[in-house]
Amino acid sequence: MSGAVEEWKEGLSIRVLQKIHDLESQAEKFKKERQQRQFQLESLEAALEKQKQKVDKEKNEGAALKRENQNLMELCDNLEKTRQKLFHELQMKESQINFQEGQLISSKKQVESLGQDFKRYKSELEKQPKTFGNGDTSFENTPQRSNTG
User: Fold this and answer.
1) pLDDT, tens digit, for every residue of 42-91?
2) What's the confidence (pLDDT) of residue 38?
3) Is 30 inside any structural domain?
4) In this structure, is residue 138 part of a structural domain?
5) Domain range spanning residue 53?
6) What is the sign, positive or negative, of the torsion defined by CA atoms of 91, 92, 93, 98?
7) 3-state SS string over the chain?
8) How many domains, in total, are found in the chain?
């Protein structure tokens, strides 16, 4: 077959044959360049697809991180509300404790005062002459209450 291909060139001048040879060489060169560029194009398309997948993966990770961040923000808000509520409750309890401590101090003073009053009355009672048992006023002469109804 190569013989049939070369037959058409018979009888052509050397200059024309040289030009044909140059054109065939150039065509072969272009064919190789096209193959190289096709390979480069396929490589670039593969790299582009890989980058697209990477971008999609990063978008998904970004969306997941955004959701997680939102959840954490809500959790922080809830924790802050709980902290404020507990702080308020603590203030209320501290106020109650302070009030009760005041009442306790007041009660202790009252007990102390009553104790002093008791000692004073007891001392006064001990200083008075004992008339019970010797004299007109005794328990034996005290009228008794009758339970006969």
Assistant:
1) 999 999 999 999 999 999 999 999 999 999 999 999 999 999 999 999 99
2) 97
3) yes
4) no
5) 13-124
6) positive
7) CHHHHHHCCCCCCHHHHHHHHHHHHHHHHHHHHHHHHHHHHHHHHHHHHHHHHHHHHHHHHHHHHHHHHHHHHHHHHHHHHHHHHHHHHHHHHHHHHHHHHHHHHHHHHHHHHHHHHHHHHHHHHHHCCCCCCCCCCCCCCCCCCCCCC
8) 1
Q: Is residue 100 part of a domain?
A: yes
The model's pLDDT over 127-145, given as tens digits with 9 standing for 90+, comes to: 887 765 555 544 555 555 5
Residue type, 95: S
Residue 56 is predicted with a pLDDT of 97
Report the predicted TM-score, pTM, of the whole model to 2 decimal places. Answer: 0.48
Q: Is 134 contained in some domain?
A: no
105 to each of 47, 98, 99, 115, 117, how far by Cα in Å? 83, 10, 10, 15, 18
d(CA 48, CA 35): 19
Q: What is the pLDDT of residue 9?
A: 84
